[in-house]
Amino acid sequence: MKIKGLLFCFFCLCLTAFAQVEVFRGVVDTSTYIKPEDTITKPPQFDQGVDDFLNYLESHFNERLVQQKQAFNVAKVQLTFYIGKDGKPEDVIYNSSANMAVASELQRIVSSMPKWTPGYLSGKKKKTLMVFYLQVQATNDLPPVKITQISQLAEYTDQTKQIKIFIVTATIMISVALWVINMVK
């Protein structure tokens, strides 16, 4: 029984060691305070920055989409994806959009884009969650759309710290409960 409890504790501690993901947001979350030790030291970057990222999206936007799909003037999209430790965009999703055709086109572009410079926390590469709030406006010129970021503010934070604390606390509580049960027998 003790061996099973120790193995369970070891397994949970191993999970916490590999569960770290950093977060980049296009807006500041004022509901939480971000401690300096939880702050990413260097955010991921595409080429020379956010402007190059937006230009890449504009230049790779499918012009036929604007012509064939329902006409739109302005679409707002919340685009979320990860930048892996190797700099490759992963798990691209759009969380909200008034125009699904535009959102799915942005998802297609980001899924096939070149590598980014990865994010760093205290000199170590970290998988980073990127959250962009974008406005896509149709134009009558090339590129067929103008893409702007709705908010220029950014937040970098370790969102898994609370989960790690919960897992460690739960592991300790379960271990103590197993020990008490074993002592009662």
Helix tally equals: 5
Q: Which term fits the overall shape?
A: elongated
**Class by alpha and beta content:** alpha+beta
**Content of β-strand:** 25-35%
> Helical amount among residues, as a percent range?
25-40%
- What's the end-to-end separation, in Å? 12 Å
Quick one: how many beta strands?
A: 8
- Name the helix and strand elements from N-terminus to C-terminus, one letter apiece: HEHHEEHEEEEEH
How many structural domains are formed by the residues?
Answer: 1
The average pLDDT is 75
Radius of gyration: 22 Å
Q: How would a textbook summarize the main sheet?
A: 6 strands, mixed
pLDDT < 50 runs, ≥5 residues: 17-22, 26-37, 154-158
Summarize the structure.
The chain is an alpha+beta fold. It is built from five helices and eight strands; from the N terminus they run αβααββαβββββα.
Q: How would you characterize this protein structure?
A:
With 185 residues, this protein is an alpha+beta fold. Helix 1 (2-17) runs antiparallel to helix 5. The chain has one domain (21-160). It starts with a helix and ends with a helix. The strands form 2 sheets. Strands 1, 2, 3, 6, 7 and 8 form a 6-stranded mixed beta sheet that branches. A two-stranded antiparallel ribbon has the order 4-5. It has helices spanning 2-17, 50-59, 63-68, 100-111, 161-184, and strands at residues 22-25, 74-83, 89-97, 119-121, 124-126, 128-138, 145-149, 155-158. Helix content is 37%, strand content 26%. A hairpin with a 5-residue loop joins strand 2 and strand 3.
